[in-house]
Amino acid sequence: MITIGRYEIRSIVAGTLRLDGGAMFGVVPKVLWQNVADVDDSNRILLATRVLIAVDREAGRTILVDSGCGSKWDARGAQRYAIHYDETAVPNALESMGLGVGDVTDVIITHLHFDHSGGLTEWYDQPGGPTQLRYPKARHWIHKKHWEHAKNPSPKDSGSFVPEDFSLLADKGVLCWIEGDNPACEIPGMEWFVSHGHTPGQLHPRFTGEGSSLLFVGDLAPTVAHLRLSWLMAFDVEPLVTIREKTGVLRKCIDDSLMLAFPHDPTVGGVMIEGTIERPIVSRTLDLD
Ligand SMILES: [Zn+2]
């Protein structure tokens, strides 16, 4: 755990999955990425699905960022992506902080790809039936542009969205919309950063206080290996925009000591960075366990 301003912050591995290594590294050849990834016989690399927990005890606020793949997968789907979801991970982490699932006040949805939003809902009684919210009392923050894109995705990324992960959110009236590229944030000690390269309207929280700052970098840089500018996912809808956005983030890391928390690195929750934008070097691994 680290403390930033008013927040105690942890990164919890809520499960793992495997995605095609070529798709995860775009134009980077396998002879390079195979040295930094755990590859299986089907060319799939191991990824964690991380949930960031940020607790402001003074304000009585417990924030979750993303939710993992969730438990609604049938055997065929789970096998395709080697999905393992630990539904006890977040409750156990909250319990170790003296909190429960009912204390979650805010859920930040970076975007609605299934590996980030699947854990927002679960089956109500039986697979294939109605779903229910895992955090029914929490406000669920999402960028409006992304919500609209998820309801009408392009042929390129439609496979990344599973409507039953998120359609209930609108029916239950728990959504809080964020709009525009520089939105104000009403949550104390937090700011919003919005990116569009990986997917339109990806929403990133940035926690700040007393000279330190941590950004949940989301799928702009899913793992440590993706810090390099040209190491981006083939999934990105606008790769050159991702490079521009990643350049801006790396500049803040190097010039202003901005810390990053990753969504998918199997071993590293977050880092500090030095070096140059072209050759970023991890100067410190954050203790976010
Ligand atoms: Zn994504």
How many helix segments?
8
- Give the termini separation: 5 Å
Inertia-based shape: globular
Q: What is the residue-mean pLDDT, rounded to a whole number?
A: 97
Secondary structure: number of strands? 16
Which fold name corresponds to the CATH topology? Metallo-beta-lactamase, Chain A
Largest sheet: 8 strands, mixed
Describe this structure in words.
This protein is an alpha+beta fold and 289 residues long. The protein has one domain: 4-Layer Sandwich (Metallo-beta-lactamase, Chain A), CATH 3.60.15. Helix content is 22%, strand content 31%. The chain is built from eight helices and 16 strands. It has helices spanning 21-25, 30-33, 75-80, 89-96, 114-117, 144-151, 163-172, 239-256, and strands at residues 2-4, 7-20, 44-56, 61-65, 84-85, 106-108, 121-123, 131-133, 139-143, 175-178, 190-195, 202-209, 212-216, 259-261, 270-275, 280-285. Strands 1, 2, 3, 4, 5, 6, 9 and 10 form an eight-stranded mixed β-sheet that branches. Strands 11-12-13-14-15-16 form a six-stranded mixed β-sheet. The radius of gyration is 18 Å and the shape is globular. The termini are close together. The mean pLDDT is 97. Bound molecules: zinc ion (ZN). The site of zinc ion has 5 residues, from loops.
